[in-house]
Amino acid sequence: MPLESLPDCLSEATHQELDKAVEKTLEDDLGDVSELSSNWQYGALLNAIIGHSNGHLDTEYLSNHQVKKLFNTHGELRDMLCAAWKHKSYREIRNIAILKTPEPPAPTLLTVTGVGQDLHQKLSGSFEAKYRGAAVDGFYEYLTHNEKLFKTVDNPRYYAKFCSIVQSSGTGKSSMLTELSKKDVMVIYMNLRGEKDRLGFPGRDPIPSKILTEFPPTEDGYWAICYAFFIALFDTLEEYLSKGYATRNAKAGIMHWVREMCDMSDPPRATARADFFRKLSEKYEKAHADLVRAVTRPSGATIEESSMTDVDETLDKAAGTDVEETADKLGKLSLSEPNASTSDPPNFTARLLTAYSKMATCLEKVFADDSDKPKLVVALDEAHPLTTSCKWVFPSRESCRLGGFRLDDFQGG
């Protein structure tokens, strides 16, 4: 079935502005490319166009998996992208019907009475209004206090660097998290709300949501997802930080980017968020593929439960130690049995700690602050899908274990 185009709903000036934004986004990756020739290049261009569409295109297609399915079904899209890239005009791509952001769900009792729509407008408006109250100050001090307690190595009460924020909807939990960025804290905000929930605000972030809430049939499978996700997260942050600290005013530049990441204006969500999650998705898929290859036997059977238990116990012993020292200690830990493959598999526990260590080194160069004040907060908002009870475990337990084991300056929430 050929791709259908819809009538143009954007002005000429808007198209030109968005086209320039696409070019700027891709100047590092595709700036010297005269003609697209690989699936990666096609995907990068499509991601950039979706990210610069003023909310008119569906962010579900920022996922590499969805892009591959799209190309397999509609091969002619590659030709359209080639032509668009050649002429540096992406109007036709923005008008493709299948790429459009879906309409809101069918009216329910809430939308019929106007309550649901009114609530959504009030919630989105609260992010644009001036923040009131001292909740963000209290939370900042709470994280600082927890850091001091956590550094007490001989205190066994504190297991991992994460906490929960529990309160009714609409009371300001999300805005408190994003407001934390104004206190010079790197807030990486991710919203995991359900795919069918289109009334809530802020909206769902499709890439981290699909990664963390589409559960495999086994606990080992979810361990692999969590390892790959946090490796990709730290690698992506390290990439952004390393670019930032090379500039004269590194901290100011990084915090400007962080505040763009915390821009929840609706529509559109900040372009910075789309670019960040696109890079994270690419790194995640590579790390996950490497891990699956490493822990799969030639016969196709996955690793035995005992090997992940070994990892679990090693993380417990690692708590409270220096990052580099921990990585060194974990250097000989294997995630598969001795002869599971023809070559030694990569050590993903050490790889996770190495990814964190590189990111933390960049963080120190940017902030140059040895105090206990929080510097990085990874916020998983609307995280109740992680409490889904699979037949093997509550997924929240696994994601918190990997995201929260002792890593200085890292706060997971």
Provide a short characterization of the protein structure.
The protein has 413 residues and is mainly alpha-helical.
How does this structure look, described?
- The chain has 413 residues and is mainly α.
- Helices cover 53% and strands 4% of the residues.
- The protein is built from 17 helices and three strands.
- Strands 1-2-3 form a three-stranded parallel beta sheet, with helices on both faces.
- Helix 2 packs antiparallel against helix 13 and helix 11 runs parallel beside helix 17.
- The termini are far apart.
With strands numbered from the N-terminus, the spatial order across the biggest sheet is 1-2-3
- Strands, total number: 3
Number of helices: 17
Oligomer: single chain
The percentage helix is 40-55%
- How would you sum up the major sheet? 3 strands, parallel
General form: globular
Strand content: under 5%
The span between the termini is: 45 Å
Radius of gyration (CA) equals 22 Å
Helix and strand sequence: HHHHHHHHHEHHHHHHHEHE
Structural class: mainly alpha
Low-confidence stretches: 106-113, 297-345, 404-413
Mean pLDDT: 75
